[in-house]
Amino acid sequence: MISGMFLFCSQRAVSYWDVKPKAFGSWTRTEDNTVYDKSRARRRLGRKLLVLLGLVLVLGSIGLVVADVRTAGDEAVSVVGPKNETMKLTVPKMKRVKNVPVYNGPATSESALRDGTLHVEGTGFPWQKEANVYIAGHRLGYPRTDSFLVFYDLNKLKNGDRVFLKDADGRKYIYRVFDRSVVSPDAKKVTEPVAGKNVVTLQTCTLPNYTERLLIQAELEKVKNKPAKNKPVQASAAKPG
Fold first, then answer.
1. Cα dist from 136 to 28, 167, 183, 219, whole Å
2. pTM value surpassing 0.70
3. What does CATH list as the number for 87-224?
4. Which of 93, 104, 118, 222 is most buried, taking the most CB atoms under 10 A from its CB?
């Protein structure tokens, strides 16, 4: 049996391939100026208008989808920040950087550097659309504190490595490394925002003489909101019989 498209006529199926191709006029009247001919012209015009309308609707839908995607992308990197500006830093490729506290303070705040890492006051935050989140950490640090050897292996990071920041509300910001550089200690431009980007800059001293500053920069890739906790369902007390 030859497979093909089937036309259902009355109660039996007729194979498309069994119907011999014939001219349209051989089995339907198509003379000019007949009522059928005029109605057929109107139908052709109607079909063209429907096709045109369909194209307009499709193009309009594509425009709306693109606009929604752009809006969603903007919202992903522009959220309301928490009241508590303390963050947690995790770098999977670094040995001692897992949920290390990041305290906000002036560049001269030794207490913040002693207890973890320092987010330099006046630089950006990850929840801002355009920002340079500038974080400094000790290369050696203080034993028995979160600063001990915290950025010792910062130089091992490569392009594409991930950097995670978590804010006080549990929101997670995922960055990808794209640049590494060495600058002088008095370089101020490195703390400025990067136009059109949300980046995090990690800074530590160079070895062995600590005369310069090693910088690693990573760009925001996506944001993950804190998963909602499922509230336990309380069983209702049975009514006494």
1. 85, 17, 14, 17
2. no
3. 2.40.260.10
4. 118
